[in-house]
Amino acid sequence: IEIQPVHWSYNQKHFYFQSAESLTSINSCFAPKTHLTEFMGNLLNYIVLQRDDNPCIFEPGSSSRPDRFKCPIEPTTIALKSPGGYGNDPVKLIGKDGLCSIVIQPVHWAYNKQDLYFEASSDNYDLASINACFTPNTVLSVDLIQF
């Protein structure tokens, strides 16, 4: 069935989404104990992650969350706060001219329709390398081959 995720793992136990499907269809498809999988390859069919003119920034962690990066993006048609939380599965995003990539752990794909939040290993990436790859006006894409 077709859904529009709102939160993949709200409080690490609830999956919120919108759908035009009937409740009967949804309950039939998402029967108890059904293993649900993400649709990373189709994510960009729903939103375009195009960087705007502002640089990405580093947000130091606090007692309530780890370090993370925020890259402003052009407004999207939907707000996609998924996957939510921290320590999510890594995803390789391709950046400038398709010539660079960065492995991120997404926090929010399109927070408030205009910000990409993610974690990235400080052992591999710093703010300068992220801004060099995720340059202004670049459309970021998920590497379907992954790593």
Compact description:
This protein has two helices and ten strands.
User: What gap, in angstroms, lies between the N and C termini?
Assistant: 28 Å
Structural class: mainly beta
What is the averaged pLDDT score? 83
Low-pLDDT runs of 5+ residues are none
- Strand content bin: 25-35%
Rg on CA atoms, Å = 16 Å
State the helix count.
Answer: 2
- The share of residues in helices is under 10%
The total of beta strands comes to: 10
Overall morphology: globular
Order of helices and strands: EEHEEEEEEEHE
- Tell me about the largest β-sheet: 8 strands, antiparallel
Describe the protein's architecture and organization:
- The structure is a single chain.
- The chain has 147 residues and is mostly beta strands.
- It is 10% helix and 34% strand.
- The chain contains two helices and ten strands; from the N terminus they run ββαβββββββαβ.
- The strands form two sheets. Strands 3, 4, 5, 6, 7, 8, 9 and 10 form an eight-stranded antiparallel β-sheet that branches. It has a two-stranded antiparallel ribbon with strand order 1-2.
- A hairpin with a 3-residue loop joins strand 8 and strand 9.
Main attributes of the structure:
mainly beta, eight-stranded antiparallel beta sheet, two-stranded antiparallel ribbon, 147 residues
Give me the secondary-structure topology.
Blueprint: E1 4-10, E2 14-18, H1 23-29, E3 49-50, E4 57-59, E5 68-72, E6 80-83, E7 91-94, E8 101-111, E9 115-119, H2 127-133, E10 139-142
Antiparallel strand pairs: 1-2, 3-10, 4-5, 5-9, 6-8, 7-8, 7-10, 8-9
